[in-house]
Design brief:
404 residues; alpha/beta; 2 domains; 3-stranded antiparallel beta sheet
Length: 404
């Protein structure tokens, strides 16, 4: 059976995380994703803390299922070549600073003029227009300006950024959603359109009730540590063996099960802890009781008791525990991807599962410009002479590595 996006051509001009993640998601479901990179250097992320030869692990985990074409954006014929490639594409993904495509002479108006069916996904920090459009932005900046940092960390502590680039991932996924919607709309209209996804908008979408809390009630939400904002007890507790367990007894039935797991049914008759509202008011007291119980047992015994009584709970896992997790292994969510220079590279699989047309890895991670000649011949019908002329003119680069 054909992949869901089989036949969809994606011209990926993006770098760093959000754009490449968007392109990878499309590639995992069958799109032909052509990543355009600078000759020699490639995507900015390739050299970031290079841990595998010339490529960083960052670049490897965002670029499977793609082909790489090396184009020097500064060369005189680069814009013309990119326009020709865009004419053959269904989707173009870019995350340059707003206005960059326009300065290159290939803004949306020009692109849609040569290919009215093109879906153009523009990923940026704050949007293509407005007073902040020109500001440089990365994930952490969006976390700061979008309110995430102010709500992360311990109570009374300073702002803390999330341990992962959550805004980059979310923005990449929002771009994927927009692209799929635009492709669906094109089926009836025959026309492409511009899709926008921004780091700032993604941050706002993560704020839960913070906006209405303030605008309606004047409440400004701050950091809350590992506690839930509306119920108790919910927190991490350290076991005898040093491991941390997260316990989340958010409802009265959950708390009743927790009390039984701890062999403390007496807590259910205690007016400070029996009702949900009372537990929330006295969370420090109930947390101290749970902490004492957990501290007296190894984490495995704690989890065994909690799960036996149906208490929502989980170990705080790091990489060694995650890769050994039987559920992760059962679902096949750690995969190996081929790389021409470095063999097989383990990484996370695609989080979306389709029963009939699942994600698949058809291509490994390309080296810079590895498929330049192949793509120009296939997409544009260029022969060896025409490709050599582009290379001689400095428009395209040579592949940085050719497998033996």
């Amino acid at each position: 059976m054909k992949a869901v996006l089989d036949g969809v051509r994606v011209l990926d001009l993006s770098r760093y995380v959000a754009g490449p993640h968007c392109g990878m998601m499309l590639g995992d479901f069958g799109a032909d994703v052509v990543k355009v990179e600078r000759p020699g250097r490639g995507d900015d992320l390739r050299g970031s803390e290079a841990a595998t030869g010339d490529d960083s692990l960052y670049s490897l985990i965002y670029n499977r299922n793609k082909r790489s074409v090396a184009v020097d954006y500064r060369a005189a014929g680069a814009a013309g070549l990119l326009l020709r490639l865009a004419e053959r594409a269904d989707v173009l993904v870019e995350n340059f600073r707003p206005g960059t495509l326009e300065k290159m002479g290939i803004g949306p108006e020009r692109l849609l003029a040569v290919n009215p069916r093109l879906v153009i996904a523009r990923i940026s920090g704050f949007g293509q227009d407005g007073p902040w459009a020109g500001r440089p932005a990365f994930d952490a900046i969006a976390q700061a300006e979008g309110g995430i940092m102010a709500m992360t960390g311990d109570r009374g502590g300073g702002p803390v950024m999330a341990g992962v680039v959550a805004m980059d991932y979310a923005t990449g996924l929002h771009a994927v959603i927009g692209i799929l919607l635009a492709l669906k709309a094109r089926e009836s209209t025959g026309k492409g359109q511009v899709v926008e996804a921004t780091l700032m908008d993604s941050a706002l979408s993560f704020l839960m009730t913070a906006i209405p809390d303030f605008l309606r009630d004047g409440v400004v939400r701050g950091p809350n540590g590992n506690r839930d904002r509306y119920s108790a007890p919910t927190n991490t507790f350290q076991a005898k063996d040093g491991r941390f367990v997260y316990v989340m007894a958010v409802s009265d039935p959950h708390f009743a099960n927790l009390a039984r797991a701890m062999e403390r049914a007496d807590l259910l008759d205690d007016p400070r802890y029996g009702p949900k509202a009372a537990r929330f008011e006295n969370e420090a007291g109930i947390e101290a009781i749970i902490a004492e119980w957990v501290a007296g047992l190894d984490s495995g015994k704690v989890m065994e008791a909690l799960l036996a009584h149906g208490v929502p709970s989980g170990m705080v896992a790091r990489a060694p525990e995650i890769v050994a997790n039987p559920q992760v292994r059962h679902r096949g969510k750690i995969v190996e991807v081929a790389h021409a220079k470095h063999g097989r590279v383990p990484m996370q699989g695609n989080p979306v599962t389709l029963s009939e047309q699942p994600a698949s890895i058809r291509r490994g991670v390309p080296t810079v410009g590895e498929q330049t000649d192949e793509v120009l011949a296939e997409w544009l019908g260029l022969d060896a002479g025409a490709i050599l002329a582009l290379r001689s003119a400095g428009v395209i680069g040579s592949p940085s590595y050719r497998p033996a």
